[in-house]
Amino acid sequence: MSIRGKYTVLHLAKHHAKVYLCARSEEKAENAIQEIKNETQRSDLDMVFLKLDLLNLSSVTATATDFMRYEIQSNFVLLPDLF
């Protein structure tokens, strides 16, 4: 997770936002979630891991389908640092 992404998620988590963390590696995502929980000193954070590989269109479709099982809409999307 980029520094910018991490601090954005930290800020959202502090304000009780539900955060979906999409990543290729579940282990890295779960480590990031635990790190954010430790930094915010809150165990009640509403963070969900969704497996996503942006280089694989079927993965993107599957992740979108998974997301729609949880939510009707998204109010915010943070894309990875691509440049």
Give the SSE layout.
Layout: H1 3-14, E1 19-23, H2 26-40, E2 47-51, H3 57-70
Parallel strand pairs: 1-2
Helix pairs in contact: 1-2
Summarize it.
The protein is α+β, with helices and mostly antiparallel strands. The protein has helices spanning 3-14, 26-40, 57-70, and strands at residues 19-23, 47-51.
- Mean pLDDT, to the nearest integer, reads 83
Please give the share of residues in helix. Answer: 40-55%
Strand order of the largest sheet: 1-2
Rg measurement, Å:
13 Å
Uncertain regions: pLDDT < 50 for 5+ in a row?
Answer: none
Summing up helix and strand content along with how strands pair, one would put the structural category as alpha+beta
Number of strands: 2
Instruction: Please give the alpha-carbon distance between the first and last residues.
Output: 14 Å
Series of secondary-structure elements, N-terminal to C-terminal: HEHEH
Largest sheet: 2 strands, parallel
Outline: globular
Number of domains: 1
Strand content: 5-15%
Number of helices: 3
Could you characterize what this model shows?
With about 80 residues, this protein is α+β, with helices and mostly antiparallel strands. The protein has one domain. It contains three helices and two strands, in the order H-E-H-E-H. Strands 1-2 form a two-stranded parallel sheet. Helix 1 crosses helix 2. The chain starts with a helix and ends in a 13-residue tail after the last helix. About 10% of the residues are buried.
Main attributes of the structure:
single chain, 12% strand, alpha+beta, two-stranded parallel sheet, 83 residues, globular
